[in-house]
């Protein structure tokens, strides 16, 4: 796959735009689509949803590599707007101010799974959007309906563009339910809250017991906010395969998803 240079997207200018890990069968209606073989000539969209720390980013990137597809982290887009709001000292409780900020910002998204990137107004923010401050604030920004509408339109545009190159793996919290409800492959990853907190603390470079406890509390708060927001709440999409990654390795999760893609586990890019 050729590295991409990213797609510049003005946010306000898109018109139409304990036990072994467990797996359950397709959730809700439409589950039969998961087991159909992939036609080598067709484009493929894989939707990967789940809460923070469930492993969806690592799994989605590896799936994209193995399938030779593009990769989109939609959460990075919400984080980018959040980071900009914090930098500009915008009151996150003022939904109109947050929406206006999102409309003015130009996001440039790179969808190479080996080098995913995000820039705001021409400045790379890959590291800046992964701080604890952004993590704790992003749910408030993501709950603003106008922001969600803008970014969902952009995400759909990126998905449509990627179809010409074979397809894309998209991860987030509302991909299979809102952004790409017709995706033939939908995955919902979960894990115990304790394991998710440990993973997230490690991502932040923290190892102390107090750090993990703090992250555990923050994850619980964000889970509640994301699941109960009015606009596009976190939920298991209809037709999704549900994987509990608590004690599954990344390769095990990826291989299970590939099985449902009708692919052998030795697919390489």
Structure write-up:
42% of the residues lie in helices and 17% in strands. It has nine helices and ten strands. A hairpin with a 2-residue loop joins strand 6 and strand 7 (123-124). Helix 2 (74-87) packs across helix 4 (132-142), helix 3 (95-104) runs parallel beside helix 5 and helix 7 (193-203) crosses helix 8 (209-228). It is globular and about 50 Å long. The N and C termini lie close together (7 Å). 44% of the residues are buried.
Please tag this protein with its features:
six-stranded mixed beta sheet, 9 helices, 269 residues, Rossmann fold, single chain, 42% helix, disordered C terminus, globular, four-stranded antiparallel beta sheet
Distance between the termini: 7 Å
The oligomeric state is single chain
Number of helices: 9
Uncertain runs with pLDDT below 50, 5 residues or more?
12-26, 28-38, 263-269
CATH H-level superfamily title: P-loop containing nucleotide triphosphate hydrolases
The arrangement of helices and strands along the chain is EEEHEHHEEEHHEHEHHEH
Largest sheet properties: 6 strands, mixed
Helical amount: 40-55%
CATH architecture: 3-Layer(aba) Sandwich
How many structurally independent domains? 1
> What is the SS-derived class?
alpha/beta
Overall spatial form: globular
Just give the CATH class: Alpha Beta
């Amino acid at each position: 796959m050729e590295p991409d240079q990213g797609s510049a997207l003005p946010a306000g200018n898109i018109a139409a735009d304990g036990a072994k890990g467990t797996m359950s069968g397709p959730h809700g209606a439409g589950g039969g689509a998961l087991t159909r073989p992939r036609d080598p000539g067709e484009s493929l969209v894989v939707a990967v949803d789940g809460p923070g720390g469930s492993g969806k980013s690592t799994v989605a990137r590896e799936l994209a590599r193995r399938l030779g597809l593009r990769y989109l982290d939609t959460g990075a887009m919400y984080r980018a707007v959040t980071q900009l709001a914090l930098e500009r000292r915008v009151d996150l409780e003022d939904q109109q101010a947050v929406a206006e900020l999102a409309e003015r910002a130009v996001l440039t998204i790179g969808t190479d799974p080996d080098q995913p990137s995000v820039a705001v107004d021409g400045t790379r923010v890959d590291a800046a959007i992964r701080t604890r401050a952004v993590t704790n604030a992003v749910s408030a920004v993501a709950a603003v309906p106008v922001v969600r509408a803008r970014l969902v339109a952009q995400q759909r545009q990126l998905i449509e563009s990627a179809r010409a190159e074979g397809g894309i793996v998209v991860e987030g919290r509302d991909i299979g339910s809102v952004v790409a409800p017709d995706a033939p492959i939908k995955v919902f990853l979960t894990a115990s809250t304790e394991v998710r907190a440990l993973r997230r603390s490690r991502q932040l470079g923290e190892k102390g017991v107090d750090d993990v406890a703090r992250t555990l509390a923050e994850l619980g708060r964000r889970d509640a906010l994301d699941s109960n927001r009015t606009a596009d709440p976190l939920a298991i999409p209809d037709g999704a395969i549900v994987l509990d990654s608590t004690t599954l390795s990344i390769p095990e999760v990826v291989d299970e998803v590939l099985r449902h893609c009708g692919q052998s586990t030795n697919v390489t890019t």
